[in-house]
Fold each of these.
Amino acid sequence: MTTHDTKAVNTGKDFEKLSVGNFQSVAIGVFGLGMQRKEYKDRNSGELTSKLEKQARVVWEVNKRDSEGKRFFIGKTYNLSVHEKSTMAQHMKSWLGITVDEEFDLASVKGKQCLLNIIHSQTDYPMIASVGPLPEGMDAIAQEQEIPLAMMKKIDENASNAIVDPNAAVPETDVNSDIDGQDGAYGGETKAPW
């Protein structure tokens, strides 16, 4: 068994946040996360309950640079639902001009350019409010860097928590395992069949 250092060290660096605004971006990765159990408060009863959702995560490289001159990254986890009110369906319509129906493979957005509208959450965390096409005449950007290891580990952790059997307990997470670039540890699909 490999052990790792457990000491926390202050690097003296503050976490830089992507600012609010519209930014040209390119989708550089799409990762299937499998079936994820999500807890939520029932609107009618107010009780805490859970349901299974098939999910995938899209990662974008943003054409905005941090203080070290590197581009920011941002990701969005989508429920793989083709329902017209789903965030995925709404984003694909506003971004690609398509209506997703019956089956849609989210992996098809890898390499596509877009304009991301970034807002900050109540806790001041950057998040994607909307995705749109590039304005006519705007030149495409190329990917400059690989997805950061910390982001890949988080994606892998989420994929490792996929529910294979809906009645099974959530499996242990191995954040040191590798993923192959497209699918999570459970061969997470990126298609939305429902």
Note: The first helix runs from residue 87 to 96.
Amino acid sequence: MCVYRPLGFTSSQNDVAGEIFWGEKKLIDMSLTLCKTVLMNPKMQELPRLSSKEKVILELLATNGSMYGLQLVSQSHGNLKRGTVYVTLGRMEEKGLIVSEAEKFSDDSGLVPRRMYRPTPFGLRVLEIWMQLEQKFAWETG
């Protein structure tokens, strides 16, 4: 059974149909989402962590589709560096967030194929959850 409780959650607070409340204010409604994400990758026992670089990569891949490493660097507006992008991509592939395959050419051009990266359904789900968490825990201004 998969159960999610935010920090500070006690049994005295209400937990109704997957919605978590703190007093009268709804704190977070993601227990089922988190459970589904964990169940998509059976080796994982908790929500995977995303570094800022991993989040940038997943956002770019989710928006633009398949890309190769240096494309990611150029599209990141300085958030990714050439020296670290491939290490990060390798780590993300091990986590199951992305997959890669050699670029396919239609002819025998003799060019060396690039590795094309794309997000997995699991990676897209993790990105979605992290974006929801950022919205839920964003500082209120005004």
Note: Residues 68 and 116 are 5 Å apart (CA to CA).
Amino acid sequence: MSATKRCLEDVSTLLGFGGEINEHLMERLDEGLRVFLDDLCDGDTNRRTPHGWVGVKTPEDAIKLLMTSRVVIISLDHDLGLLDPRNGNAVVKWIEEKVVVEGFKPPEIWIHSANSVGVQNMLRGVASIHRHAGTELPPFNPVWEAGLDQPPG
């Protein structure tokens, strides 16, 4: 099985298509994905995946979605309850490497974390991504509040 097919099957599972690669999956990918990386999304807390977003709990799942080149916005939590370096910054580093090595077009990157040191590290990575991609660094992205259903503003 090719790596592309395996990736699409993983993405199909993440998007609720049961691992099938079909026209509905492809239509969903064509719409562009908004990805919300957070260990608490849709768990026992009041934090929910915002409406219209795909919630994932691990950097690996976020990266699988990024590999489709269909992610238009990704919102990252830093602390994911996993062992370092499995945190939101791992996704920033992956994007940065792909931009530098392969010319990957990065999505808009938002950060929603209470870890101020983690946020600063991720923001440095985001600035580097924009520098290497030759794009302008947008103003600081809104901070998401726990339980927020819609993007701010």
Note: Confidence is low (pLDDT under 50) at residues 142-153.
Amino acid sequence: MPVCPQCKYEYVEGITLCADCKVPLVLSLSEMEAQSENNEINAVNELAIVFKSSNAMELSMIKSYLEASGIGVFANGSRLSELYMNMEGLGEVYLQVPLAQAEQAREIIADLQSTDESTPQ
């Protein structure tokens, strides 16, 4: 039996649009729940690039700070395996975080960079 995903009103077969909410009907509440779960998974899987560098030490430090703050970090880029061996000559590597945590990650990175710039050499 078709169901409105918003108001949960059940309709007879053949009806495809909720008369009150004006949204397409789903075949069942379980289909609606599955769609909702997929949307949540997709939101988690969406990543934002928050930092780019070819400096292995800098990448490793920022990645560590973000992880210590509870932010999942994914590194992506050329010659990525060298990041974990602290070798120079990396191609550019991108640090990515879940989209929902991107703003927080950028703030942490900005704080780290401003602290680094204000430290006397």
Note: The helical segments are 29-45, 56-68, 102-118.
